[in-house]
Amino acid sequence: MTVILGALLTIAGVVYMAGAALRRGRLSDPAPTAPDRPAPNLPTPGPTLEPRRRGLGFLGLSQNWPGLLMMAIGIILLLSMAVL
């Protein structure tokens, strides 16, 4: 039972973090700019999958802590069963 719960928590953490990254905005559009800033200089004229100024904000701890917590608890449960 503990192994199943640990596996489910680990998978739920990954799914939560993937969903949180997708909810923050389209990945193929550059990050929105303020009205007083110029638009980012992209190598192609249209939307691209790798905008220059998107950054790695989607990896921040403040946005992903619930998913990381679920994964950590799931891994601890899985390792506790492996040790016993």
Keywords:
84 residues, mainly alpha, 0% strand, 2 helices
Overall description:
Keywords: Membrane, Transmembrane, Transmembrane helix. By secondary structure, the protein is an all-alpha fold. The protein has a domain of 51 residues. 54% of the residues lie in helices and 0% in strands. It contains 2 helices and no strands. Helix 1 packs antiparallel against helix 2. It is elongated and about 60 Å long. The mean pLDDT is 77.
SSE order and pairing:
Elements: H1 2-23, H2 61-83
Helix pairs in contact: 1-2
> What is the chain-wise order of helices and strands?
HH
Helix content: 40-55%
Overall, the morphology is elongated
- The unreliable regions are none
Number of helices: 2
Which radius of gyration do the C-alpha atoms yield?
18 Å
**Global mean pLDDT:** 77
Largest sheet: none
- What structural class results from the helix and strand content? mainly alpha
What is the CA–CA distance across the termini? Answer: 14 Å
User: How much of the sequence is in beta strands?
Assistant: under 5%
Number of DSSP strand runs: 0
